[in-house]
Amino acid sequence: MSLVDQVKTNLTYYNLWNETKVIEFKDGSKIIAGVPPEPVHPIPSIITMDPNQDLEGNHVDNNNNNNNNNNNNAINNNNEMEVEQSSGVQIPQSPKVEYVYPVGLNEKISLKQVSQIFENLQIALNQRPKRITLGVVANDGTIVYYFVHDGLAKPKKN
Length: 158
Fold this sequence. Notes:
The chain is α+β, with helices and mostly antiparallel strands. It folds into 2 domains: 3-40 and 95-149, Trna Endonuclease, Chain: A, domain 1, CATH 3.40.1350; 47-93, no CATH class. It is 17% helix and 29% strand. It is built from 2 helices and 8 strands; from the N terminus they run αββββββαββ. It has helices at 3-14, 111-125; strands at 18-24, 30-35, 74-77, 81-84, 89-92, 98-104, 131-137, 143-149. The strands form 2 sheets. A 5-stranded mixed sheet has the order 1-2-6-7-8, sandwiched between helices. Strands 3-4-5 form a 3-stranded antiparallel sheet, with no helix packed on it. A hairpin with a 3-residue loop joins strand 3 (74-77) and strand 4 (81-84). The longest helix has 15 residues, at 111-125. It is globular and about 60 Å long. The protein starts with a helix and ends in a 9-residue tail after the last strand. Belongs to the SEN15 family. Residues 54-77 are annotated as: Disordered.
């Protein structure tokens, strides 16, 4: 069974992804597109926080706020998650298509190859995704998934 078939089978039957299909690029490489049963982790550069806290988690009094922001509006953060500002409640959106590039554990993948994957997706889809997922397949059939972002992602603060 090829790497592509192994990852596609794992996504479909173990991770319960829907609408999985293989996209073949002109250069012969393949990527798997599918819809996970629930949204995968949001992109790290998106900050979702309680409107009553600053970036360090300290309480902020919003009553002395003189700007014209309407805190009752929902904000759409890059189609990943909607946040109701007035309550801080996260309302997940429906899952979107994710792209998984299968690689073997012993394969070496360069930044040039990753860039080529994003360029191939841009040509095939007429849009460039913000991230892809590498599906790393071990010799025993174990598959581990890693996010690869297009460009720089803001690091998490500990």
